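Thread: quick sanity check before group meeting

JM: Hey all, I'm pulling together slides for Thursday and realized we never actually wrote out the predicted structure for the chain we discussed last week. Dropping the sequence here so it's in one place. If anyone has concerns about the input, flag it before I start.
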Amino acid sequence: MRINDDLTRPALVHAGRLDWVPSPAKGVDRRMLYRVGDEVARATSIVRYAPDSAFPAHVHTGGEEILVLEGTFQDEHGDYPAGSYFRNPPGTSHSPAAKDGCTIFVRLWQFRQGDAAQIVRQPGEGAPTPPRLGAKAARVLFADGAERVVIEDWQPGALVRVENIRGLELLVLSGSLSVDGDRMGPQGWLRLPAGHMLAASVGPQGAQVWMKDAPLQHPDVLPLPQ
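JM (edit): ok, ran it. Output follows.
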């Protein structure tokens, strides 16, 4: 399966408008944004857990990065309410579930060789950083020189410009913004290759965004199994 697999071209998906696609686990459905592969895949998705649903225990051979969008995501290590962010590097494992249901944003098999940083940020955590023009607040969830992940609150009606030297990925968490006249609401996802500046017009309610500044695929990304 291949979805938005041309990393040399911009991609914009209104994920909130997509149908939910069942996963192999009962009660766990997906909206696929980017995918190369079948069930074992390099992928970016929105995943919904119905109440009392669970996914079988598994090892993250290629790494996993998650932002909880709604509800509370759970595993044997703890509870992660909406706004939680964590990275499970290659070799880690867990048994994910959601007693009351949840929705998460997840990136799979996009870690690079030697990336072993395991990070857990509860809602509101992260290092404050000076906001860019048009933003009122920003905090860093993760940064290691090869990539930088932030959550930013953008002001109503602002024009926000983001330089893009390495590659850029954005998810709208709340509010709205427009890019090239295309209005993005919650779960709107945008991916821009290096050199494509982001110019976003923020809606009247403002917007909160998750954003990753990194190569769209690291040169030393972990290879998918054959």
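AS: nice. The first strand starts at residue 2 and ends at 3. The mean pLDDT is 95.
JM: adding both to the slides.
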